[in-house]
Each structure stands twice: as structure tokens, then as C-alpha cells.
Specification:
244 residues; alpha+beta; three-stranded antiparallel beta sheet; elongated
């Protein structure tokens, strides 16, 4: 049988083992709580990222589709601001490093300075949009495609835009965007399929109208042509001679 000293030593070892196990369990629980806190924070950040506003400034091109296939690219370019996020953007401030301008030939005489004075007033760094709702978009005429891509004296090729805004959750955002005409000219601008089909149907309709007009004209010409009267020739009757 163990002596009293041996029992005390065994009891002490057991107590130390229990304390070590308890300390290990506490560390595990603390580590789990920390991981849970981090996971909750990541989830919160992910939800904020999904539901946050996103204000974008970009050059938007609308292609004009003609009835004839194979025509050169023509269209209109706009300067656009849009909130593509899922919640309103608050206190939206826009600024640009150099004032926007374009080619004078796109405007009526003397109208371009007035137009871009209004545009650049929006990009002066002050709050111009207290609230910009989701999918809200604002556009300003910028030029004609493809002539806008021609190098013109005094017309910048590159703009740097800074956008700052807040969210309804109290988050603040600051983003910088580059608008480069030399990059935009490389973008493919395909014809929308439904619009192309609609133009083809218009071409078919024009051909059918042309054929209908031709048939109508021919019918009227035939109806107005005078018809020569029919003259009946009476054949003389032969008389029988009397016998001698």
C-alpha cells in the first residue's frame, strides 16, 4: 500500500493534471470564441460589401444601328454617373483632375462652353447628390463616335475622377476612376441582336412596300389604257341562181 507521502504526491499530480486539463479547455473555449467573433465580423463585412452603394463614373457609348448591314460604327458618347449598388449613396462628391471638354463641332456655335460649365460644376468636389438611390443614373452628352476618338488640339485624352460618398450604415468610401479615350476606342460595341433583327424586319417591310407600290402602279396603268372597239364584218350572203 502507498504511504501517506505517496498518496499526497499522487493527489497533487492529479490536481495538477486536472488544472492543466481545465486550462486547456479554457484556452480552447477562448480560441473558439475568438474564431466565432472573427467569423461574425467577416460575415458582417461581407454583408456590408454586398449591400453597400457603388457609385461609378464612366464613358457610355450608344451605338446607332442602320438598316444596311456592314455600315461603319457610329454612335453617341455620354459621361455617366450611376449607383450600381443595392443601397443609397449619401453625400456624393465628384471631382476631376482637369475640366471635361470635347470637340466644338459636336455643338451649336457657342454652346459647348455653356454645356461643359454645367458638367464641370457637378465635378467641383462639393456635395451635388445628397442621396443617389440604387440604379439611379445621370448622363451628359460628351461627343460623337467615332470622331470623338480623333486627336484634337486642346482636348484631353485622359481624366482622373475621384468619388467620395457614405452609406446608410455609416461607412465612408473613396474611389478613383480613370476615363481614357484611347482605351475606350478599343472596346467592342456589338449590335444588340433584337435591334439588328428589328432593322432587318424594317428592310423587308420596305421591300414589300416597294413591290406593292409597283404592282399598284402597273394595275392602274393597265386600267387606264383605252381598249380598241371590236368591229364586226358582215359577210355577204350568196344568192342561188335560177336554173335555165
Amino acid at each position: 500500500m502507498p504511504t501517506a507521502e505517496e498518496w499526497q504526491a499522487l493527489f497533487g499530480a492529479t490536481v495538477l493534471g486536472a488544472l492543466a486539463f481545465t486550462w486547456y479547455q479554457i484556452r480552447q473555449v477562448d480560441s473558439s470564441n475568438r474564431e466565432l467573433v472573427h467569423a461574425n465580423e467577416r460575415t458582417r463585412q461581407a454583408n456590408l460589401e454586398i449591400s453597400r452603394p457603388r457609385v461609378q463614373v464612366y464613358l457610355q457609348m450608344d451605338r446607332q444601328v442602320s438598316k444596311s448591314r456592314g455600315q461603319p460604327l457610329e454612335g453617341t458618347m455620354f459621361l455617366a454617373v450611376r449607383n450600381s449598388g443595392r443601397s443609397p449613396a449619401l453625400n456624393v462628391r465628384l471631382s476631376v483632375d482637369i475640366p471635361f471638354t470635347s470637340i466644338d463641332g459636336f455643338f451649336k456655335p457657342g454652346m459647348m462652353p455653356t454645356h461643359f460649365a454645367k458638367v464641370n460644376s457637378v465635378f467641383d468636389g462639393t456635395v451635388r447628390f445628397p442621396v443617389m438611390n440604387p440604379d439611379a443614373a445621370y448622363v451628359w452628352f460628351f461627343g460623337r463616335v467615332p470622331r470623338i476618338f480623333d486627336v484634337a488640339p486642346g482636348v484631353p485624352r485622359r481624366y482622373e475622377v475621384t468619388v467620395t460618398y457614405d452609406s446608410s450604415a455609416g461607412q465612408s468610401y473613396k474611389e478613383q476612376m480613370v476615363l481614357d479615350l484611347d482605351v475606350e476606342r478599343q472596346l467592342e460595341l456589338p449590335v444588340p441582336p433584337l435591334l439588328r433583327i428589328g432593322k432587318d424586319i424594317e428592310v423587308v417591310g420596305d421591300h414589300l412596300k416597294s413591290i406593292s407600290r409597283s404592282v399598284t402602279t402597273a394595275s392602274r396603268a393597265t386600267a387606264s389604257t383605252p381598249v380598241a372597239p371590236v368591229v364586226r364584218v358582215r359577210r355577204p350572203r350568196l344568192r342561188r341562181g335560177s336554173g335555165s
